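Q: What does the assembly look like in three dimensions?
Context provided by user:
Components: two
Sequences:
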Amino acid sequence: MDELISDFIIESGESLEQIDAALVAFEQHPKDQDILRQVFRLVHTIKGTCGFLELTRLEALTHAAENLMGRYRDGLPPTDEGVNTILTVIDQIKAHLDHMRAHDGAESDGNDQALIDALNRLAEEGTAEEDQFGDQAPFEGATETTAAPQPLDPLEEAFRNAPGPDDPLPMPAEPDAAASAPVAKPAKDPTAGTPPQGAIRVQLGVLEQLMTMVSELVLTRNQLMAVNREFEDARYHTPLQRLCSVTAELQDGVMKTRMQPISALWQKMPRIVRDLGKELGKQISLEMSGEETELDRQVLEQIKDPLTHMIRNAADHGLEEPGARVAAGKPEMGKIEMNAFHKGGQIVIEIRDDGRGLDAKKLKQKAQERGLANPAELDAMSDSQAHQLIFHPGFSTAEAVTSVSGRGVGMDVVRTNVEMIGGTIELQSSPGEGTLVSLNIPLTLAIVPALIVASHQERFAVPQRAVRELVRIAPKQNRKVAVQNEEDMQLEWVNGAQVLQLRDQLLPVLRLDEALGVQTATDNVDGGFVVVLEIGAFRFGLLVDAVFHTEEIVVKPMVGALKELKHFSGTTILGDGSVIMILDAPGLAAQVTQSELNDHGAQQDMGQDQQGEDRVELLCFILEGAGRKAVPLSLIHRLELVDLSQIEQVGGRYTLQYTERLMPIVFLRDQQMSDLQRSRQKPLLVFEDHGFMLGIAVDQVLDICKAPPHYDLDGAGPGYLGSAILDGKATEILDLAHFMAQEHPKLFERQGQTATPQRQKLLYAEDSAFFRNMLVPIFQSAGYEVTVCHDGQEAVERVQGGEAYDLIVTDIEMPRLDGFGLAKSIADAPHAAQTPIIALTSYDEPAARDQAKALGMSAYIAKNDRARLDDTLSQMRNRMDRDVA
Amino acid sequence: MQIVCFDVCGQHFGMEVGWVSDVHKLDALTPVPRAPEIVAGVLNLRGRIVLALNLARYLGGAPKEKSAQLMINVQFLNESYGFLVDSVSDVVSLAPDQVQACPHNVDPKLASFARGTVRHEGRMMSILNVDGMLQSMLSHDLMHCA
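A: Here is the predicted structure of the complete assembly.
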């Protein structure tokens, strides 16, 4: 029997049984809205499904019944006749279902016209009656006993006038007569009366419980066997043997209850494809292979919707119209292939169509329309990257929303569903040839293959999903004595971090015992194994003492109280009954990167005195062919995306009309000139200083990263302050003042001119080369003559040496003498006590702020607060100018 | 009420028998690295994973090496917990009025989840409120250590 129909029969039969009680209640309290709705829903569902399955007879019947019940639901008071008729309909539905069950899903001949007529008549009467009685109708509903007889008169009158059987009771006999064939036929086949295939539904929890118990039984059996081996008692021999085989069979059987062939799911597909083809006017053939592949029923349940959706997609979007196919030189009949097979402990399900394939250009266009990505990103995308766009939420390529697809459930939902069960989804497509979607899904959710490893006599399980390879580390003695064997792998140390050179890759190695805090001694590593794990694109090695074997483990969730432990993802019980912990590869990976970061930070700290906290935010970007560059985020005014074709060349300089002004554009490398002709979009960093704008065109903006304040300033070319290691990569820091001076020579001139004839003198104490390079030009552009000191002590010495300054700007954290110390010393120096002091700091703490105030500092400004720094500088200038005047 | 009497580090304790699902010999305990101190490990009890808690450590006594021999199993919020104890002696019936309030000088931690004390076979026995104790063990100490 068609799987779809047999499902329908089972489900409808179950629902009918469920509402049996409700039906009885319905008979007694026909006006109870809850019961009415329940029955209505059932009839409605059956009607809908019948329409889909093309069971016309049942559909006509349920449609008429639904009609009447809809009226009752809307407030028409049900009559005895109506209730009886509905009950008759329910019985008739049951009879139909029984017939279909016995006849391989075929509907019985004939029709239920008499019953349908009765239903329609009742529904029409309702209309007439409502017209007649108008507002009274609701009242009748309210007072059941007294009001009920009232409408009977007109009803009976109408009833008498209406064509059809006189008495409502014989009515069921009519349809029965019409459908006498179905009722009669089952009698010929006595077995047909039993429920189909003897299937029952069992709660998954019950099965789980059963499985746990069976595994326990296996353990107990194993223990008994061990005892028997020890004492060799012949009397136990036979019963134990029996116990063995029975247990094994029981275990098999229970495991089988979880597994189902994928055909259980695929059986529905030909029907769906056929219907889709009809609806879409396409000829589609469906080929399936590997139907016998077995899957955990839970997994099967989870991939049901994604699979159906992908089939719909393939039929609707993938395959072309017949005309288009012929034009493309393909057979008129479109082909969809489904294939399932085992591969590396996983099930692979492939869905392939020979349709038009994905159109990368169209996808990009769509993505832009939907605002899913900006043009620059899309431009940079390869075709296969563009194909991935269909997994983006809110993406559908169907040009028209058909009833088949485009219901707001897209491939993103498919992917989410697949990933939820630990699977992955891949998509390959070539234009004109078709699309291949492959799902990699785990066999089961409950059982995973795992590698059992040991560290310090304790065993742990590593899920094999993450394991890429195993590497044996040669013990030390061998290495010393024997000639260096090329094959021998050894661990090496890089700056206190353990690494393994594996072919051309240098892998960070995490010691399991250290990660678990079992032992931290670093020098007694002798031999052992490195389990190479891969999480996403991140590979690392896990050093363990021993590797045993792989085992299918039943994953048990972590004990609630221990969920905090990130190293473990759960627990499992091994064949010998012992409990071991399952290592969580992502958790361990996090520890590797964590410790790497920490190490990195520690080294930074050592190299930079007390300035560990002193970090600047930098915007990193890429210049094609010139590597990573960065610029302090605080200096950036805006980030724009501009069309290169809009950039004009004026007097040998590149300019762009920006907010109704001309902004000079700096290209950091020459090759980009040729791009101007093409209309490519590029990110533009916009800087602004005293109304002067400057744009710097870059190729790709990467990210914002925190930078240590100290840079290697050697070898910086013009336009660069120096380079730093940002996120582990060498990055050059742009010298903005250089470009500003280059593009706006007036900016510096002007400020020089408008300032008082003699420039104000500013003493700047700062130990960070970065800030010296960054801020000195700012002070200069604000019209100061800057003297730079490398720490507070130097500044004090200068002041005490008699040098006079109009303004002192100081960092707080400095070696030898900090900013506060400097402020104190200045206050003690008679000729400098009145000099205003601005404290610049990288961290803004209220306590430090208070201290600055207490010491009489004029301002306390965060280093990255460019606006406030500018304001304060000009305020100071104005005040001093006034003083001078 | 029926009270199961047991000894931990030489001290006498009791808990209501209704809580106790099993008392069994301790074997094959798997330690959990990085777990809080009071977690002795996990073990398999008829297919259920049981979190073994070191009662001696929690109740503050200095545990003798390998002193715990038995485990008392309880179910709490759908999970299984086991308390390591030195010995389980008896189940006694007590009338509620036999239980006196804890003296004020007992450890406040113990007092927070002890129902009271009672004299049993010549020794003082503290009756433990199992849910209170588990809650206190799980919330405070586990969160803190993990």
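Follow-up: The first strand of chain B starts at residue 2 and ends at 8.
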